[in-house]
Amino acid sequence: MPDQLRSDFLSCYGATFIDTPHIDSLCESGVRYDRAYSPHPVCVPMRSSLLTGINAIRTGVMGNGQYLRPDLEACGIRTWPDRLRDEGYRTCAIGKMHFYPWEASMGFDHRIVCEDKRWIQIEDDYQKYLNAKGLRKLHGNEHEGYQKNRGAIVHQHSYEDSWDGFVGNETVKYIKAHDDTPFAIMVGFPGPHCPYDPSAEYADRYSPDDMPEPYPIADDQPGQFVEGNVNGNKGTWNGVDYTEFTTTHKKKIRAYYAALVKQIDDKVGEIIQTLKDTGRWDNTIVIFCSDHGDYLGDHGLIGKGTFYEASTRVPLIVRVPEMGESRVHEGPASIEDITATLLHYGGCEVPGYMDSRPLADLDIADASGRGYVFGVLSGGSMIYDGTWKLARYSNGWSALFNISEDPAEQHNHIDDPDCQAIRERLDAILTRQFLASITKAHAEKNHATDWVDPAFAKGEGAWKRVYPQPIGLHHT
User: Fold this and answer.
1) How much helix, strand and coil, in percent to the nearest 5, is found in the chain?
2) Peptide bond before 315: cis, by omega within 30 degrees of 0?
3) Quick check: pTM over 0.90?
């Protein structure tokens, strides 16, 4: 799981300005999901949903400032690595996980931590690795041209000492040192998340002139989007002022972003080769995805957080050795379904309370494609049916886009008389999803009110209600 990788910067998704052969090779025996979406396109909400198999309304994690409640297990919720442990798997998390606190296990047996590029103060395993070499983590503003190039810099550390180099190398070492016990590894590359900081060995691989043009700001796009984006990025975590954000800036960023993607692709290649060298390739399922995308200047924005395509559309590839062929699933797909897919392949029953379900086209019994993807964050929500996307935001703006005809999302049909039936259909689905999720989000408050239950029906006082109520007993 690279962090903040949009799908159109991979050659297997049609990019012509970059070649990503190692990631592409995962498609040779598996499924590439052409319309895969992150339903909660911000780091912590999406990662929390993936850990638990339930959506962001139900986890309560709707932004990066929130996290999963510490009594998850008492609520009957267990993370996927915790469940796989019951089936004899040794689980390991390598790289960025964005857990709070950062060193928490969240069900993993072992962790090798290389956290967010912005968390330069924490003493994780990457920091210790650098310190042993007389190096340290560096903020982007410690590099030449950081402000001038709007966060695009050449990092001072070599490729092998970079964030992604460390994560790739530690994954290779873990696989080589591993015995024959079944394993499940989550590999969290910190890149290509900003700062856009390829090492010198890769920085000049791509020319800004060859980068795709950024999408313009549509006429009816709310001014709050750019204003909030600019103000948020002025914070000390980033410290870049995007008040002036030219096409030159955007293409420079895109070239360095492409270089980061290339760095990751090469490490993916080394991981694949290690699986082959250790005799595990033919018995290992590989899932490749990202938690969300990056605007890279589209709509005048940087980063993520709305339901524009650049923020929500992500790569999703599932490589299954015995499949022996390449498939493309063209319907809408949600990456929240990775959780149930992992449990299925690990021999676990998928709990009935989960929103996640096994992905389609993998020859999994009873697995079928989704008719739509439902997404939500604290600032908005969306429903996408494979053609049309309806998004509603807390600032009052709503948008209805035909993604098939208008991938740049320039033509808002929300008030188009000819599209009102589409709007009403999607709005009804969105409302149903909200109401169902809100109800399920309060499952821990349930208690018996059945007259045949002696604890309730006797009418005596001083009985103690179970709290939190385990979700598995009263899921709807």
Assistant:
1) 35, 15, 50
2) no
3) yes
Same domain (yes/no): 388, 301: no
Same domain assignment for residues 124 and 259: yes
Does 2 fall in a domain? no
Collapsed DSSP state (helix, strand, coil) of residue 20: coil
Domain ranges, residue 467: 384-473
The predicted pLDDT at position 473 comes to 52
Q: How many CB atoms lie under 10 A from the CB of residue 154?
A: 19
Q: How many domains does the chain have?
A: 2
The pLDDT score that the predictor gives to residue 422 is 98
CATH of the domain at 105: 3.40.720.10
End-to-end CA distance of the chain: 31
Residues 164 and 304 in one domain: yes
SS3 192: strand
Q: In this structure, are 353 and 391 located in the same domain?
A: no
Among 309, 335, 368, residue at a domain's last position: 368
pLDDT of residue 450: 73
407-437 pLDDT, tens digit each:
999 999 999 999 999 999 999 999 999 999 9
Q: How far apart are CA 432 and CA 429, in angstroms?
A: 5
Distance CA 337, CA 54 (A): 10
Using DSSP's 3-state secondary structure scheme, residue 300 falls into helix
Considering the domain architecture, whether residues 16 and 76 belong to the same structural domain is answered as yes
The pLDDT of residue 476 is 39
Residue at 205: amino acid letter: R
Under DSSP, is residue 45 helix (H, G, I), strand (E, B) or coil? helix
Q: Which of 307, 335, 368 is the last residue of a domain?
A: 368
The overall longest dimension of the chain from CA atoms, in Å, is: 78
Residue numbers in the chain where pLDDT is lower than 50 = 474-476
Predicted confidence at residue 231, as pLDDT, reads 97
Backbone φ, ψ for residue 131 (5° rounding): -60, -40
- Asked if residue 294 and residue 425 are part of one domain, the reply reads no
Q: What is the rounded distance in angstroms from the CA atom of residue 463 to the CA atom of residue 441?
A: 25
pLDDT for position 474: 44
